[in-house]
Specification:
Strand content: 5-15%
Number of strands: 2
Length: 154
């Protein structure tokens, strides 16, 4: 853990993830609903649905962390993503955290692997003193409290 920074607690991180997932589902299913009301073919609707999923995933998990070192859920829960030395996460850290999400694009097997990674991440979240999930370990990142960042900067 970078000096002076406090890892975000497991329940706080889980709450942030739930907020993020609710927002993502609302956007994706809202897009699907709009497409359904436009009387497009079912094939086109499915293609558009997966397209919306992919771009929502890119925006939410890559762009927000790359630009702001946080997501809406993390912000609400007082969390930020930092790099290995405690520096604000940038595009490199965000990309490394995000790239594991691509496994979900593989039909059936991707879902199983992704859910397995989520379970392992939960175990790490509760057992690892640095609270690093699989995504954090791949990126070399940490999710820390905003309060500890402010104290460290003061």
């Amino acid at each position: 853990m970078p000096a002076g920074l406090e890892a975000g607690g497991p329940w706080r991180r889980i709450a942030g993830k739930v907020i993020d997932q609710v927002l993502l589902v609302a956007v994706v299913y809202g897009s699907a609903y709009l497409l359904g009301s436009m009387n497009v073919s079912s094939r086109a609707a499915w293609a558009a649905f997966w397209f919306a999923c992919f771009w929502a995933m890119i925006f939410y998990n890559l762009v927000l962390v790359g630009l702001f070192a946080t997501t809406v859920g993390k912000t609400v829960m007082g969390l930020r993503v930092v790099g290995p030395q405690g520096e604000r996460a940038g595009w490199r850290v965000a990309t490394r955290r995000w790239v594991l999400q691509l496994v979900y694009l593989v039909p059936v097997l991707g879902l199983l692997i992704g859910q397995g990674g989520a379970i392992v991440s939960l175990i790490y979240l509760f057992k690892d003193p640095r609270r690093q999930t699989v995504y954090d370990r791949v990126a070399g990142s940490f999710v820390v409290t905003t309060a500890s960042m402010q104290r460290a900067q003061a």
